[in-house]
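User: I'm curious whether this sequence folds into something compact or stays loose and floppy. Could you predict its structure so I can see for myself?
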Amino acid sequence: MFHNDTMNWLSRFLFDNFRLSTPGDAETISGILELSAVGSWVVLFVLLSGVMVYLLCKTKIFEWLSKHVLLLATIIWIGGTLLYIVGFNNEHVNGLSVVLRAIISSFRMFVVSHDLARVDSDLQEDTLYMLLFAITHFAAAFITFLFIFKMVGYKIKSYINILMHRFIYSNNSVVHLFWGVNDASCLLAESIHRDHNTETIIFIDIDNDDENNNQKQVTLSRITNIMTIHNSEIARLDKIGALVEHCYGGPADVSGAAATNIFKALHLKSIGKIVHKSNTVNFYFLSDDEAANISGALNLQQDVRLRQRGCDKCGENKKEERLNIYVHARKTASNEILNNYSRYNNSDQCCDIKIVDSACLAVKTLKTNSSTLPVKCVKVGKLGTVNSDFNSLIVGFGVTGQEAFKFLYEFSAFVGTDLKRVPFHCYAVDENMDKIAGEVRSQMPDIKENELSLIKSHTGAQEFWDKVNQVIPTLNYAVIAINNDNESIALAVNLFKVALRLRDDSRCMLKIMVRCYQSSNKRRMQEVIDSLTYSATGAKVKIMLFGDNQAVYNYNLIQSDVTNIEAMEFNRVYNNADDAEAKWKADFGREAIERLMEEKRLNRYHAICELSRQMSQNISNSLHGRTKLILMGIEPEKHPERLELYMDYIKSRAKFSTNYACGGDEAQLLLNMAIVEHERWIAAHRVMGYTHGKSKDAVHQYHPSICPWAELDEKTKSYDCDVVDTTIKLAYNQLIATQPNGVK
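Assistant: Here's the prediction. I'll summarize afterward.
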């Protein structure tokens, strides 16, 4: 009413003062002004919308509002109730009924409805009341929008991103597809994004609720429960730009003919198209359900569409490139076979299954870190020899504990002045040792009680602390792997205290390695360690964490596997090859299996075992290079001239000979390192189950070289010298790569 009166007054004013010809002109002007006013409101609406979109997209206001939906809804409901109480109140209505009707009407605001007709007519003409009424109803509608968007908005956003990727970005890309969302998969995805942020990361949120399976129709409950991942996980996935899709059940639930097209069976058509058009695809099953992970991987291998990948536009077929499926599972005997047969089978399957054992990866972090090597816990004497025994303690002899023992047994294979391995002893403690001991002894028959003592006890028992008090004065290394972070750090602190009380200051360093199982506990545990270290400055006892999820689920450790890359380079230099990857493929690819079966007359199982043994030695040789350089006193970056000197020394040795023409202490040091390598090689084979035999036998796991150095022939000894020479060459090559102007 006010708006119309204003327009009429303004048109009459123009007619009277500007002598317009007729009143009709005034009406025309009034219409123009009316249209202009509407345009102004439209402009104002666009501006306000733009401001709102900016605030929601470019600031954290939307995130804050989403987190406080309930609080905001309560405040708005109370405000609406008060407004309606005022609006409904008059002398003809009972007060109680006013309140009840106001409460109901206030609830209706959240379904974008109002009861303005019941509001007193005088208040409907009141500008302030109507302004508050409009603001409150708008806020209620906005809260409803937030609530709906919080439930299904992320799904809508994800669907749009997937469609854009399917039709625009997917050709010739690298795809990492994670089946399921958990901390391990998020950590690995974040690691991939840091190093390879142009590659596509996809997460399939799997809802395993039996009531919501793929055979049921889409219902409202399925729409509102469209995502099962938490807000914290959504934030992590958004940060790395991951594509997220939802499905009911996973590959493990698909069986029969449906397994020939997994993505169709799970209603993931767009994801399937992205995979089909991509050059390289890596699948990940990293949940804690080992059985579901393996079943899902095996079903995925049956997907015929994965063998027909190619570009829809060019028609190119890429089926010759095998895909990788990374499966979180323990490296048990059965899973090891699954891992090896997948890699070396001769079928037309297009996917290789690779077991991801977090325990093995945790110990691998010890092997790749120079500060956690056993050589850092002994005193190195003249010519790379060690004068003392190596004693260790492992508390918790599960998968991590057993892998830690294998690592310590192999990497502590030092030689004394008599050029024989220094005595090694490990005390392994576990409260379930009676269920473990038999399998351990059968897997490593050549390792006896004098090297490995298996003790059934727990950390609170008197016998445990009696044993600790007995061995800790001469202990070099301790590993705590009891799958309980609180108990682990408490035990480490207690061992630290006992060590300070009972150890002689002249002893070498004791390192207490504590496995952190939960990343959320890492900071707290590290704070305890830092405080303890600071308060006991100078003590030759050190506590260190290892194997937390952030370190384990790392791109370089799982997907690219930096240890394999190092091993490839070691193999190339050792064999004087030109191309590391081509040489590795020739030596350890599928063709090598067929060659072994033909030349050695082995069946496929034993051929695979033999090839795995050879491959593991290349990996160990490359990792053990750090230990050899430390024993030799070579720090390439600090003393490059010493490394260059040894490059000249190793050139003086003839093929199949152990004689270094440089002579003197330098020649003896190089020879001592060859003996260390031989002892390492023996240790590695013993933990694999090998024993001494008159001839090499991959079936019965016999090897004639499992004997003292002195009993080897010259040619066999020269192979150990070759390993030492390769270690020096690799260190020199790496130094050259980091110093473009050459060694000075």
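Summary: The longest strand covers residues 200-207. The longest helix spans residues 127-169.
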